[in-house]
């Protein structure tokens, strides 16, 4: 659990960084923000959005926003890997199986870095937040099956087909993120 808390905290900070002004205060009347900035989701896979203050340099600001969104995707993979660890450990314990190999969390950073090559911007738009012009991007990583397969392969875990499918469905699901957020809330009370 101690390993999960820093990841959750980092994820929470990253999530706040792309929408910091909009989450702490309601949008002002003159603010204009695309819906995908506030709710970055994609049917294709994992998604993240990020905005940076407009400096007048499209290439610089676009690159900065894409980099921040990709960093958030990397954190999402790491959080999902920690959920896979919990689920796998629960299953292994209930079946009295020998736990062989490393943890998904141990290999998640390396796999995330490799997977981010396939993360591409799907949307780029200007927004106005708190009266400041922003350049926003939505980055989507559609190779979730490959990412999951790499996590499993590098962890050395031996999964039967039904367990593999169940873990993959959990890996894709947004529920994993919500479960960890709920766990963090419970710890703070």
Rounded mean pLDDT is 77
User: For the largest beta sheet, what order do the strands appear in spatially?
Assistant: 1-3-2
In one word, what is the shape? elongated
Low-confidence stretches: 1-24
Assembly state: single chain
List the helices and strands and how they pair.
Elements: H1 4-24, H2 35-38, E1 46-53, H3 58-94, H4 104-115, E2 119-129, E3 132-141, H5 144-155, H6 161-172, H7 175-188
Antiparallel strand pairs: 1-3, 2-3
Helix pairs in contact: 1-3, 3-4, 3-6, 4-5
Descriptive report:
The structure is a single chain. With about 190 residues, this protein is α+β, with helices and mostly antiparallel strands. The protein has helices at about 5-25, 35-40, 60-95, 105-115, 145-155, 160-170, 175-189; strands at about 45-55, 120-130, 130-140. The chain has one domain. Strands 1-3-2 form a 3-stranded antiparallel sheet, with helices on both faces. Strand 2 (about 120-130) and strand 3 (about 130-140) form a beta hairpin. It is elongated and about 55 Å long.
């Amino acid at each position: 659990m101690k390993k999960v808390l820093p990841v959750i905290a980092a994820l929470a900070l990253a999530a706040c960084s792309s929408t910091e002004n909009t989450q702490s205060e309601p949008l002002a009347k003159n603010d204009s923000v695309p819906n995908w900035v506030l709710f970055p989701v994609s049917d294709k896979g994992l998604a993240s959005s990020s905005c940076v203050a407009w400096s007048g340099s499209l290439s610089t600001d676009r690159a900065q926003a894409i980099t921040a969104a990709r960093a958030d995707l990397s954190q999402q993979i790491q959080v999902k890997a920690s959920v896979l660890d919990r689920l796998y450990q629960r299953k292994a314990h209930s079946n009295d199986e020998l736990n062989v190999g490393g943890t998904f969390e141990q290999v998640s950073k390396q796999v995330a870095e490799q997977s981010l090559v396939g993360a591409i911007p799907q949307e780029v738009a200007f927004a106005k937040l708190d009266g400041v012009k922003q350049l926003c991007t939505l980055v989507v990583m559609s190779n979730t099956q490959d990412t999951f397969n790499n996590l499993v392969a590098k962890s050395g875990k031996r999964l039967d087909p039904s367990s593999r499918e169940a873990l993959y469905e959990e890996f894709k699901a947004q529920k994993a993120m919500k479960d960890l957020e709920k766990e963090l809330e419970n710890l703070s009370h």
